[in-house]
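Q: Could you predict the 3D structure of Peptidase, M14 family, carboxypeptidase A?
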Amino acid sequence: MTITELTALYETYKEPKLHGRYITNSHIKPLLENLDSSFEVFDIGTSVLGKPISAIKIGTGKKRILLWSQMHGNESTTTKALFDFINVLKHSKVALHLKDTCTFYIIPILNPDGAEAYTRLNAVDVDLNRDAQLLTQPESKVLRAVYDSFKPDFCFNLHGQRTIFSAGSINKVATVSFLSPAQDENRTITDSRKIGMDIIAEMNTTLQQLIPNQVGRYDDSFNINCVGDSFQSFNVPTILFEAGHYANDYDRNQTRFYIFSSYITAFNYISSEEISGDNYNAYFEIPENDKCFYDVIIRNANVGTVEEPQILDVAILFVEKLINGKVEFIPKVDKIELLTNYYGHKEVNANNMSVLGADNKPLMVGVENDFVTIGADNFLLKL
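A: Sure. Here are the predicted C-alpha coordinates for Peptidase, M14 family, carboxypeptidase A:
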Protein backbone atom coordinates (compact mmCIF):
# COMPACT_ATOMS: atom_id res chain seq x y z
CA MET A 1 0.00 0.00 0.00
CA THR A 2 1.38 3.42 -0.93
CA ILE A 3 1.83 6.28 1.52
CA THR A 4 -0.91 8.18 -0.30
CA GLU A 5 -3.29 5.25 0.16
CA LEU A 6 -2.36 4.85 3.83
CA THR A 7 -2.91 8.53 4.47
CA ALA A 8 -6.29 8.51 2.75
CA LEU A 9 -7.33 5.41 4.70
CA TYR A 10 -6.36 7.04 7.99
CA GLU A 11 -8.05 10.34 7.24
CA THR A 12 -11.24 8.52 6.26
CA TYR A 13 -11.43 6.11 9.19
CA LYS A 14 -9.70 7.86 12.09
CA GLU A 15 -12.00 7.50 15.10
CA PRO A 16 -13.06 11.10 15.97
CA LYS A 17 -14.31 10.28 19.47
CA LEU A 18 -10.84 9.34 20.74
CA HIS A 19 -8.31 12.09 21.24
CA GLY A 20 -5.67 13.18 23.71
CA ARG A 21 -3.71 10.91 26.03
CA TYR A 22 -6.45 10.00 28.51
CA ILE A 23 -8.33 6.94 27.20
CA THR A 24 -10.43 4.79 29.56
CA ASN A 25 -13.24 2.22 29.46
CA SER A 26 -15.77 5.04 29.44
CA HIS A 27 -14.26 6.37 26.20
CA ILE A 28 -14.28 3.07 24.35
CA LYS A 29 -17.58 1.65 25.65
CA PRO A 30 -19.83 3.53 23.17
CA LEU A 31 -17.50 2.54 20.34
CA LEU A 32 -17.75 -1.12 21.28
CA GLU A 33 -21.53 -0.86 21.55
CA ASN A 34 -21.68 0.64 18.06
CA LEU A 35 -19.89 -2.23 16.31
CA ASP A 36 -22.01 -4.32 13.96
CA SER A 37 -22.72 -8.04 14.20
CA SER A 38 -19.62 -8.99 12.21
CA PHE A 39 -17.65 -8.16 15.38
CA GLU A 40 -17.85 -10.37 18.44
CA VAL A 41 -17.63 -8.06 21.48
CA PHE A 42 -17.47 -9.59 24.93
CA ASP A 43 -15.93 -9.22 28.38
CA ILE A 44 -13.08 -11.60 29.15
CA GLY A 45 -12.66 -10.76 32.83
CA THR A 46 -12.42 -7.95 35.34
CA SER A 47 -9.67 -5.84 36.83
CA VAL A 48 -8.61 -5.60 40.48
CA LEU A 49 -11.32 -2.97 41.02
CA GLY A 50 -13.93 -4.92 39.10
CA LYS A 51 -13.83 -2.97 35.83
CA PRO A 52 -14.63 -5.06 32.75
CA ILE A 53 -11.83 -6.04 30.40
CA SER A 54 -13.39 -6.10 26.94
CA ALA A 55 -12.32 -7.87 23.79
CA ILE A 56 -13.20 -7.81 20.10
CA LYS A 57 -12.94 -10.71 17.69
CA ILE A 58 -13.34 -10.44 13.95
CA GLY A 59 -12.34 -12.37 10.84
CA THR A 60 -12.54 -15.94 9.66
CA GLY A 61 -9.00 -16.49 8.45
CA LYS A 62 -6.58 -19.16 9.63
CA LYS A 63 -3.84 -16.68 10.62
CA ARG A 64 -4.63 -15.79 14.22
CA ILE A 65 -3.42 -12.41 15.51
CA LEU A 66 -3.67 -11.42 19.18
CA LEU A 67 -3.29 -7.73 20.09
CA TRP A 68 -3.45 -6.08 23.51
CA SER A 69 -3.01 -2.42 24.43
CA GLN A 70 -2.81 -0.36 27.62
CA MET A 71 -1.21 -3.11 29.65
CA HIS A 72 0.32 0.04 31.09
CA GLY A 73 -2.69 2.24 31.74
CA ASN A 74 -1.11 5.53 30.66
CA GLU A 75 0.06 4.25 27.25
CA SER A 76 -2.94 4.98 25.06
CA THR A 77 -1.67 5.92 21.58
CA THR A 78 -1.79 2.32 20.35
CA THR A 79 -5.37 2.05 21.64
CA LYS A 80 -6.49 5.04 19.59
CA ALA A 81 -4.84 3.56 16.51
CA LEU A 82 -6.54 0.22 17.19
CA PHE A 83 -9.96 1.86 16.91
CA ASP A 84 -8.86 3.58 13.69
CA PHE A 85 -7.96 0.11 12.40
CA ILE A 86 -11.25 -1.32 13.68
CA ASN A 87 -13.07 1.35 11.65
CA VAL A 88 -11.18 0.14 8.60
CA LEU A 89 -12.34 -3.41 9.32
CA LYS A 90 -15.86 -2.10 9.82
CA HIS A 91 -16.24 0.03 6.72
CA SER A 92 -13.47 -0.38 4.14
CA LYS A 93 -13.37 -2.78 1.21
CA VAL A 94 -9.62 -2.83 1.78
CA ALA A 95 -10.30 -4.97 4.85
CA LEU A 96 -12.08 -7.80 3.06
CA HIS A 97 -8.86 -9.68 2.34
CA LEU A 98 -7.66 -9.17 5.92
CA LYS A 99 -10.85 -10.62 7.37
CA ASP A 100 -10.78 -13.57 4.96
CA THR A 101 -7.19 -14.50 5.74
CA CYS A 102 -6.82 -13.48 9.39
CA THR A 103 -8.72 -13.69 12.66
CA PHE A 104 -8.08 -10.74 14.98
CA TYR A 105 -8.48 -10.93 18.75
CA ILE A 106 -8.16 -7.41 20.16
CA ILE A 107 -7.98 -6.35 23.82
CA PRO A 108 -8.13 -2.53 23.68
CA ILE A 109 -7.51 -1.85 27.40
CA LEU A 110 -5.98 -4.68 29.43
CA ASN A 111 -5.45 -2.48 32.51
CA PRO A 112 -8.65 -0.43 32.94
CA ASP A 113 -7.81 0.58 36.53
CA GLY A 114 -4.46 1.99 35.44
CA ALA A 115 -6.13 3.70 32.49
CA GLU A 116 -8.66 5.36 34.79
CA ALA A 117 -5.96 6.57 37.20
CA TYR A 118 -3.55 7.33 34.33
CA THR A 119 -0.78 5.22 35.80
CA ARG A 120 1.57 2.61 34.39
CA LEU A 121 0.70 0.10 37.12
CA ASN A 122 -2.57 -1.59 38.05
CA ALA A 123 -4.68 -0.76 41.11
CA VAL A 124 -2.33 -2.55 43.52
CA ASP A 125 0.82 -1.06 41.96
CA VAL A 126 1.87 -4.15 40.01
CA ASP A 127 3.50 -3.81 36.60
CA LEU A 128 1.54 -6.31 34.52
CA ASN A 129 4.47 -6.56 32.15
CA ARG A 130 6.51 -8.14 34.95
CA ASP A 131 3.81 -10.63 35.96
CA ALA A 132 3.92 -13.05 33.04
CA GLN A 133 5.20 -15.99 35.09
CA LEU A 134 3.72 -15.56 38.56
CA LEU A 135 0.33 -14.39 37.21
CA THR A 136 -0.54 -12.74 40.51
CA GLN A 137 -3.00 -10.26 39.01
CA PRO A 138 -6.45 -10.80 37.48
CA GLU A 139 -5.46 -8.83 34.39
CA SER A 140 -2.41 -11.07 33.84
CA LYS A 141 -4.54 -14.19 34.25
CA VAL A 142 -7.05 -12.86 31.71
CA LEU A 143 -4.36 -12.31 29.09
CA ARG A 144 -2.80 -15.72 29.64
CA ALA A 145 -6.22 -17.41 29.43
CA VAL A 146 -6.90 -15.65 26.12
CA TYR A 147 -3.48 -16.69 24.83
CA ASP A 148 -4.07 -20.31 25.82
CA SER A 149 -7.55 -20.50 24.30
CA PHE A 150 -7.01 -18.45 21.15
CA LYS A 151 -3.63 -20.03 20.30
CA PRO A 152 -2.32 -17.07 18.29
CA ASP A 153 0.12 -17.32 15.41
CA PHE A 154 1.28 -13.74 16.04
CA CYS A 155 1.22 -11.53 19.14
CA PHE A 156 1.25 -7.72 19.11
CA ASN A 157 2.22 -6.21 22.48
CA LEU A 158 1.30 -2.53 22.26
CA HIS A 159 2.94 0.14 24.42
CA GLY A 160 3.95 3.81 24.62
CA GLN A 161 7.42 5.30 25.02
CA ARG A 162 8.65 8.38 26.88
CA THR A 163 9.95 11.49 25.16
CA ILE A 164 13.53 10.73 26.26
CA PHE A 165 14.16 8.02 23.67
CA SER A 166 16.23 8.56 20.54
CA ALA A 167 16.73 6.43 17.45
CA GLY A 168 20.40 5.74 18.06
CA SER A 169 22.69 8.22 19.80
CA ILE A 170 21.96 11.13 17.47
CA ASN A 171 19.54 14.06 17.32
CA LYS A 172 16.66 11.93 16.06
CA VAL A 173 13.73 11.15 18.32
CA ALA A 174 12.34 7.61 18.36
CA THR A 175 8.79 8.29 17.20
CA VAL A 176 8.12 4.57 16.85
CA SER A 177 10.20 1.73 18.27
CA PHE A 178 9.89 -2.02 17.85
CA LEU A 179 11.24 -5.17 19.45
CA SER A 180 11.24 -8.84 18.60
CA PRO A 181 11.79 -9.97 22.20
CA ALA A 182 14.41 -12.48 23.28
CA GLN A 183 13.20 -15.87 24.42
CA ASP A 184 16.27 -17.00 26.32
CA GLU A 185 19.20 -15.54 28.24
CA ASN A 186 21.47 -15.85 25.21
CA ARG A 187 19.06 -13.81 23.07
CA THR A 188 19.20 -16.56 20.46
CA ILE A 189 17.92 -15.59 17.01
CA THR A 190 15.26 -18.29 16.85
CA ASP A 191 12.86 -18.97 13.99
CA SER A 192 9.99 -17.22 15.78
CA ARG A 193 12.15 -14.17 16.47
CA LYS A 194 13.20 -14.09 12.81
CA ILE A 195 9.55 -13.94 11.73
CA GLY A 196 8.90 -11.05 14.13
CA MET A 197 12.04 -9.29 12.89
CA ASP A 198 10.93 -9.78 9.29
CA ILE A 199 7.55 -8.15 10.01
CA ILE A 200 9.23 -5.27 11.84
CA ALA A 201 11.56 -4.74 8.87
CA GLU A 202 8.50 -4.51 6.61
CA MET A 203 6.90 -1.90 8.89
CA ASN A 204 10.18 0.01 9.02
CA THR A 205 10.26 0.20 5.22
CA THR A 206 6.92 2.00 5.32
CA LEU A 207 7.84 4.25 8.23
CA GLN A 208 11.11 5.37 6.66
CA GLN A 209 9.01 7.06 3.98
CA LEU A 210 7.06 8.91 6.68
CA ILE A 211 9.58 9.52 9.48
CA PRO A 212 13.07 8.84 8.10
CA ASN A 213 15.61 7.96 10.82
CA GLN A 214 12.98 8.19 13.56
CA VAL A 215 12.39 4.47 14.09
CA GLY A 216 14.19 2.74 16.95
CA ARG A 217 14.89 -0.80 18.05
CA TYR A 218 14.14 -1.50 21.70
CA ASP A 219 16.68 -3.24 23.93
CA ASP A 220 16.25 -7.03 23.80
CA SER A 221 17.61 -7.93 27.24
CA PHE A 222 15.82 -11.07 28.33
CA ASN A 223 13.31 -11.11 31.19
CA ILE A 224 11.00 -14.11 31.29
CA ASN A 225 8.64 -12.15 33.56
CA CYS A 226 7.87 -9.81 30.65
CA VAL A 227 4.88 -10.90 28.62
CA GLY A 228 6.57 -10.53 25.25
CA ASP A 229 9.60 -12.58 26.28
CA SER A 230 7.31 -15.19 27.83
CA PHE A 231 5.08 -15.56 24.76
CA GLN A 232 8.14 -15.57 22.49
CA SER A 233 9.52 -18.43 24.59
CA PHE A 234 6.48 -20.42 23.46
CA ASN A 235 7.79 -19.99 19.88
CA VAL A 236 5.04 -17.57 18.86
CA PRO A 237 6.34 -14.51 16.96
CA THR A 238 5.74 -11.55 19.26
CA ILE A 239 6.20 -7.90 18.35
CA LEU A 240 6.51 -5.08 20.86
CA PHE A 241 5.33 -1.63 19.70
CA GLU A 242 6.45 1.56 21.42
CA ALA A 243 4.56 4.70 20.39
CA GLY A 244 6.93 7.61 20.98
CA HIS A 245 7.28 11.36 20.55
CA TYR A 246 7.00 13.50 17.44
CA ALA A 247 7.83 17.20 17.31
CA ASN A 248 5.24 19.28 19.23
CA ASP A 249 2.97 16.24 19.46
CA TYR A 250 2.50 15.64 23.18
CA ASP A 251 -1.03 14.35 22.58
CA ARG A 252 0.49 11.80 20.18
CA ASN A 253 -1.92 12.63 17.36
CA GLN A 254 0.75 12.42 14.67
CA THR A 255 2.33 9.33 16.22
CA ARG A 256 -1.11 7.72 16.12
CA PHE A 257 -0.99 7.85 12.32
CA TYR A 258 2.42 6.16 12.25
CA ILE A 259 1.17 3.38 14.53
CA PHE A 260 -1.93 2.94 12.33
CA SER A 261 0.31 2.77 9.24
CA SER A 262 2.42 0.13 10.96
CA TYR A 263 -0.68 -1.95 11.76
CA ILE A 264 -1.93 -1.85 8.18
CA THR A 265 1.53 -2.68 6.80
CA ALA A 266 2.03 -5.60 9.18
CA PHE A 267 -1.43 -7.08 8.67
CA ASN A 268 -1.26 -6.77 4.90
CA TYR A 269 2.11 -8.52 4.98
CA ILE A 270 0.88 -11.31 7.24
CA SER A 271 -2.30 -11.80 5.21
CA SER A 272 -0.53 -11.88 1.86
CA GLU A 273 2.65 -13.84 2.60
CA GLU A 274 3.85 -16.99 4.29
CA ILE A 275 6.50 -15.17 6.28
CA SER A 276 9.69 -17.19 6.62
CA GLY A 277 11.88 -14.71 8.45
CA ASP A 278 14.35 -14.61 5.59
CA ASN A 279 14.49 -10.81 5.75
CA TYR A 280 15.30 -10.73 9.49
CA ASN A 281 18.72 -9.12 8.98
CA ALA A 282 17.06 -5.84 7.96
CA TYR A 283 15.77 -5.61 11.54
CA PHE A 284 19.31 -4.99 12.77
CA GLU A 285 19.65 -1.99 10.45
CA ILE A 286 17.22 -0.17 12.76
CA PRO A 287 19.26 1.78 15.34
CA GLU A 288 18.90 0.72 18.96
CA ASN A 289 17.16 3.16 21.28
CA ASP A 290 19.24 5.51 23.37
CA LYS A 291 18.07 8.12 25.88
CA CYS A 292 19.36 11.37 24.40
CA PHE A 293 16.38 13.73 24.76
CA TYR A 294 14.84 16.12 27.24
CA ASP A 295 11.65 18.06 26.72
CA VAL A 296 13.46 21.39 27.14
CA ILE A 297 17.15 22.23 27.41
CA ILE A 298 18.23 25.73 28.42
CA ARG A 299 21.77 26.11 27.10
CA ASN A 300 24.49 28.36 28.51
CA ALA A 301 22.58 29.21 31.67
CA ASN A 302 24.27 31.09 34.48
CA VAL A 303 23.12 29.13 37.52
CA GLY A 304 25.67 30.82 39.77
CA THR A 305 25.85 34.45 40.77
CA VAL A 306 26.91 37.66 39.13
CA GLU A 307 30.11 37.55 41.18
CA GLU A 308 30.71 33.83 40.60
CA PRO A 309 29.00 32.77 37.38
CA GLN A 310 28.54 29.07 36.66
CA ILE A 311 27.59 28.36 33.06
CA LEU A 312 25.78 25.06 32.62
CA ASP A 313 22.81 23.57 30.80
CA VAL A 314 19.41 22.98 32.41
CA ALA A 315 17.41 19.89 31.42
CA ILE A 316 13.63 19.92 31.87
CA LEU A 317 11.42 16.83 31.73
CA PHE A 318 7.63 17.00 31.70
CA VAL A 319 5.84 14.99 34.36
CA GLU A 320 2.46 13.73 33.18
CA LYS A 321 -0.30 14.32 35.75
CA LEU A 322 -4.02 13.68 35.51
CA ILE A 323 -5.75 16.87 36.68
CA ASN A 324 -9.54 17.18 36.46
CA GLY A 325 -9.76 14.49 33.82
CA LYS A 326 -7.05 15.96 31.63
CA VAL A 327 -3.39 15.03 31.30
CA GLU A 328 -1.19 18.02 32.12
CA PHE A 329 2.53 18.18 31.38
CA ILE A 330 4.33 19.68 34.36
CA PRO A 331 7.93 20.87 33.83
CA LYS A 332 10.48 19.59 36.35
CA VAL A 333 14.22 20.27 36.47
CA ASP A 334 15.97 16.94 35.87
CA LYS A 335 19.64 17.92 35.52
CA ILE A 336 21.86 20.97 35.80
CA GLU A 337 25.14 20.17 34.10
CA LEU A 338 26.85 20.29 30.72
CA LEU A 339 24.63 18.31 28.35
CA THR A 340 26.86 18.10 25.30
CA ASN A 341 25.53 14.76 24.05
CA TYR A 342 21.86 15.48 24.76
CA TYR A 343 19.15 17.23 22.77
CA GLY A 344 16.02 19.13 23.67
CA HIS A 345 12.69 18.83 21.90
CA LYS A 346 12.84 22.54 22.53
CA GLU A 347 16.09 24.40 23.13
CA VAL A 348 16.70 27.91 24.44
CA ASN A 349 20.03 29.71 24.56
CA ALA A 350 20.35 31.78 27.73
CA ASN A 351 23.53 33.39 26.37
CA ASN A 352 25.25 33.21 29.78
CA MET A 353 22.46 35.17 31.46
CA SER A 354 21.17 34.30 34.90
CA VAL A 355 18.42 31.65 34.93
CA LEU A 356 16.19 31.52 37.99
CA GLY A 357 13.05 29.68 39.04
CA ALA A 358 9.86 30.87 40.72
CA ASP A 359 10.21 33.89 43.00
CA ASN A 360 13.68 34.42 41.54
CA LYS A 361 15.02 31.47 43.49
CA PRO A 362 17.91 29.36 42.18
CA LEU A 363 16.90 26.36 40.10
CA MET A 364 17.08 23.02 41.88
CA VAL A 365 16.96 19.48 40.51
CA GLY A 366 13.62 17.83 41.22
CA VAL A 367 11.67 21.08 41.55
CA GLU A 368 8.70 21.85 39.28
CA ASN A 369 8.74 25.20 37.49
CA ASP A 370 6.04 26.46 35.13
CA PHE A 371 8.43 29.17 33.97
CA VAL A 372 11.96 30.41 34.47
CA THR A 373 13.45 33.89 34.38
CA ILE A 374 16.20 34.33 31.83
CA GLY A 375 17.88 37.66 32.45
CA ALA A 376 14.97 40.05 32.85
CA ASP A 377 12.43 38.00 30.88
CA ASN A 378 10.06 35.23 31.89
CA PHE A 379 10.18 32.09 29.77
CA LEU A 380 7.16 29.77 29.94
CA LEU A 381 8.09 26.09 30.22
CA LYS A 382 4.63 24.61 30.53
CA LEU A 383 2.82 23.53 27.38
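Q: Anything worth pointing out?
A: The two ends are 36 Å apart (CA to CA).
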